[in-house]
Request: fold
Amino acid sequence: MSKEISVLISEEEIDRKIREIGARISKDYEGKVVHFVCVLRGSVFFATELAKRLTIPVTIDFMSVSSYGNSTKSSGVIKIIKDLDDPLEGKNVIVIEDIIDTGNTLEYLLKNLKLRHPESIALCTLLDKPERRVADVKVDYTCFEVPDKFIVGYGLDWAQKYRNLPYIGVVETEE
Ligand code: IMP
Ligand code: MG
Reply:
């Protein structure tokens, strides 16, 4: 089986969009400190680039989750593998995601995070696959909508590889 990756969104386009979203967040949260909750591992690449474009203070924390059950279908019930280091109480939280697919993971995660009494909570994603949405999650900041294809690069993996691609690509598989 050979695999080819075709470019869907170039490095320049991503850069431009992250600057734009960074400016929007800086304006929306003017005078405040934002607290990024970064979901490992895919969103790390996006989170650090976005953080560099903010003109307001930002703190950052990480958590790692995995979904229970059937591995090919997201069940929505997630297990926290690594929890946040710091409490969220009183903070202006922005959850940073690489991609929102069914939205099941996010729906569960947001419920969990809201119980920790943040001042506010918003959701920011690099990619959104709206065609696949099952759960009703409200996304506050989206960089790009993508078609229902297998996406890699800029943090997204295919069997843990290709996260380091500087662009967003689509895996074309051939037997
Ligand atoms: P869901 O929104 O609960 O279905 O799960 C979203 C998670 O599935 C993301 O955080 C990714 O880790 C993974 N995922 C979904 N679609 C893709 C894709 O096209 N490429 C790589 N990972 C994906
Ligand atoms: Mg992920």
